Amino acid sequence: MTSSLPATESADPAFLEYDTWPVATQLTALWQSQLAAAAVVSSALPALTEAVEAALPRLKAGGRLVYAGAGSSGRLAAQDGAELEPTYNWPPERMCLLIAGGSKALLNAVENAEDDAAAGNAEVEALALTPNDVVVGIAASGRTPYTIACIKAARSAGALTVGIANVPETALLLAAEHAVFVGTGAEPIAGSTRMKAGTAQKIVLNLLSTSLMTGLGRVYKARMIDMRSRNAKLRERAVRMVINLTNCTEESARIALEQTEGHVKSAVLIALGAEKKAAETALSQSDDNLRNALSRLGLARTSLCT
Asked: Is the pTM higher than 0.90?
């Protein structure tokens, strides 16, 4: 019976007396296990690279990014997806979350929801996926019926599918076009995949979404130039970005941002001497890529403002 368990469910012999250890020893061991989980992600980078490179043309063509998962994995996916709009101005209608049990499952356990493959099929069907859509399924064991059903249905619809799991050659990885395996092994607390597996999953999601947003032109010179300036802190960050990217004065940066309603990309072009209409046109003709728009307008990094 025990031998049939996936690695994420088995007990780690090194932790069998964990509950008897002093707190300091417990914390040190848990911390070390987290470091080990992060290190394992390196082996998944080639597969992740292929997934990102395959996804970018579809998203550039207007496709949606869809995350599918259950329990802890679904919640991690929800967190990553929720941060894409404020950080990169990713349109909310192009970020879809499929989580077993629905929105209620974000805060509460929904019994048996992860076993409902029919719900996964129905929810994917309701999205009316196209070949430009990208669906990412995530499950520590790779055996979650709901998530597997989502990926199978998405692939049948022609969408690009990516599977992320912590156990090799599982049904989820076999169902997905791109399989990203992160072998974190046994957990410090047997079966508690919110720990090592969850840490590795969060890292993979961070890498995946950040690389996608970068490839979509929403990052320039390692800055989140598409962020939504919705509060005082972010508005000041936008000012600093324009100053740093153009060498203009603070006053000029604020004026440029006022003209663009806080849109950093356009403000950078204006601070470098472009008229507002010309800036908007250049971005539109450059696939909203600031680097390409700068080249199109013949603007150097050196500020033209005083």
From this structure: yes
Q: Is 111 a catalytic residue?
A: no
Q: Please choose, from the candidates 112, 122, 168, the residue with its C-alpha nearest in 3D space to the C-alpha of residue 144.
A: 112
Catalytic residue among 9, 114, 123, 187: 114
Q: How far apart are CA 200 and CA 40, in angstroms?
A: 8
CA dist., res. 303 & res. 271, Å (int): 7
What confidence category does residue 300 fall into, taking pLDDT thresholds of 50, 70 and 90?
Answer: low
Compute the residue count for the chain.
306
Mean pLDDT (the chain, rounded): 93
Strands, E assignment, the chain: 65-69, 95-99, 134-139, 160-165, 178-181
Residue partners of 237: CB distance under 8 A and separation at least 6? 227, 229
Of 50, 83, 85, 177, which is the active-site residue?
Answer: 83
Please identify which residue in the block is written with the tokens 């005082």: 232
- Residue 275 bears catalytic tag: no
